[in-house]
Xylose isomerase (Shouchella lehensis G1), 277 residues
Amino acid sequence: MKHQFSLAHLTALECAPPELIYLAAQAGYDFVSIRPIYMGLPDEPNYDLATNKVMFKETKIALQQTGLNVHDIELARVHADIDPLIYEPAFEVAAELGAKHVLSSIWTDDTELGREKFAQLCDLARPYGLIINLESVPIASVKTLKGAIHVLEDVKRENVGLMIDAHHFHRADDCIDDLKTIPKEWLHYFHLCDAQREIPVKKEEMTRILREERLYIGEGGLPLKDMVTRLPSDIVFSLEMPHKQRTKELGTFEYIKKCLESAKTFVQEKDTRIIKK
């Protein structure tokens, strides 16, 4: 079958959404995943399309000219100090750009508050036809796959999804067999990347690697074959593979092209093994 690939914005965060779209189309991607929600992180560019009307217009033009689609937007963080209502302008942007998904993660250790705010996110997103996909992140409060599953079971909303990141799954020491227990209707896309097999002891080093030193598919030591074979066959592969040094050496276009080539080779080999069986 023909698999579809999205370019996650973190892989080329130096590119504003219009440039990201043109480069992704030229490289052969099917979608882009953009970050129109500004989080104020160190050295993070501000691509708030809800307030930057010029960039928003340029983004729409880029989509029209390339025929690419926006798969998802990010990151609607659940945090004790953040009112979910602030994300509604970004939801409007997502809907107008044709996106169907929003990525979220939970960053408060107050379990009840986290679930309450996540449920509110889902309710805010529903009128825009958006699905809120929860990602477990080992440096956040909901760190594991099981933890994310419990949240979705508790909030009982129809427009929810579970977004699994290969790096985070491995770093959280999640169980491969648990992937079989996830309702298929929750699985819409998957962050495909590779990384060193060894799990960093220090949080700072784990954070550095996940933000700027992920590897080409097949280059590292993550159990990608076991993971992917347990996911729906039509799942979209979103390539979140930031590597600061390689981007500097190769240039953004050549780097994202090599990311896609490594992913397509991996998926093709996976399909070939399944057919032979």
Summary: DSSP finds ten helices and eight strands in the chain.
